[in-house]
Amino acid sequence: MKVRIDRDELLKVLQKVHGTASASRQNTLPVLAGVLISAGTDGMVFATTDLEMFIQGKVDAIIEKEGSCVVNARKLFEIVKELDTDTVEVHTATEKLVLKSGRSRFNLQMLPVEDFPSLPLPEGVKFDEVPGGVIVDMIEKTCFSVSHDTMRYNINGFYIENNGSRTRLVTTDGHRLSIVEKDFSISRSGVLLPYRGMMELKKLLQSAESISVGITGDRAVFRCDEYLVVFRLLEGTFPEYRGIIPSDNNTVLVIDRELLLSALKRVSVLSSHDRIRGVRFELSEKKLRLSVSNQEMGDAEEEIEVEYEGEDFCIAFNARYLVEIFDAMYDERIVIRFKDDMSPALITPLSNKESTYLVMPMRLLE
């Protein structure tokens, strides 16, 4: 193999594919820490896998001699990141991949190409075209409530399903439920997509106008621009979530999202634990009082003018759960509906019904 390739294009493709191989560094198969590089008539193809997920990207290059090799993905990425020339010369020598850039030369030990797993692309995949920005938006608005408890594998990812002519993405960690719904539908739904695969997909879609989505057997396949992502679906049954969405939360608060978000971040600085930041909400007519009490550090409170005309009401939440939700929302004004201090709160935008969040309250010691 002998090629010349633009340094920025090479760095771009390695940034997007090397993460999958990097996650395999502790694997007993050394080849899974590598990137398969193939040079052919239609350019250079870079592929990585951890056996659960496969990512492939293609870039244009001047191909002087076709060929393929496997080298350590992270080291190749780190080398290319430090190069300061416009063009990189790449060729294979005896058991080495040679990179030349200006006065720099790197010889990377190659791994056996025949040991690299083949692309697990299912046959007969039916693809649906979806706007790339829509998928990114759905992931960003739900990813924070995916459970990372490996004992609860059926909530370790994103549940995707059709709801009439719309598609929903749903996540939960047992304390929160996040639902985002958009105007498109896919041919197969009701499956669990893995967290890491979806986060890698989000990186690829940052600038993609559209994406082709195909789900068949135990695999999900995504195509966008010059990239292909294939990953294994999660096993298990996602919890029945529709029945827990309350319909009788009649205590209604309307508030400016950024105003509440900023106040929450301020008062929760004095909370007693980095991850469990208990904040008390005290509602009275047209006023919300946020307060935190920490026996070791002190206390804090802040009052906000709000749209509320009900009876005095008090409830407490883990501030981190709310901050992550409000950070993911773009809406200027939001609606929070309560039932009582032991029941989950329902959070939605005021202007649309695309996203719904359910948050369990917490009990604070007096």
Description:
The chain is of the alpha+beta class and 366 residues long. The chain has 3 domains: 2-115, DNA Polymerase III, Chain A, domain 2, CATH 3.10.150.10; 128-242, Roll (DNA Polymerase III, Chain A, domain 2), CATH 3.10.150.10; 245-359, Roll (DNA Polymerase III, Chain A, domain 2), CATH 3.10.150.10. It is built from 6 helices and 25 strands. Strands 6-2-3-4-17-16-15-10 form an 8-stranded antiparallel sheet. The chain has an 8-stranded antiparallel sheet with strand order 14-11-12-13-25-24-23-18. The longest helix has 16 residues, at 7-22. The radius of gyration is 25 Å and the shape is elongated.
Write the layout of secondary structure elements.
Layout: E1 2-6, H1 7-22, E2 34-40, E3 43-49, E4 53-59, E5 62-65, E6 67-72, H2 73-82, E7 87-93, E8 96-101, E9 104-109, E10 128-131, H3 132-140, E11 157-163, E12 166-172, E13 176-182, E14 191-194, H4 195-204, E15 210-216, E16 219-224, E17 227-232, E18 251-256, H5 257-267, E19 278-284, E20 287-294, E21 298-305, E22 313-318, H6 319-328, E23 333-338, E24 345-349, E25 355-359
Antiparallel strand pairs: 1-5, 1-7, 2-3, 2-6, 3-4, 4-17, 7-8, 8-9, 10-15, 11-12, 11-14, 12-13, 13-25, 15-16, 16-17, 18-23, 19-20, 19-22, 20-21, 23-24, 24-25
Helix pairs in contact: 1-2, 3-4, 5-6
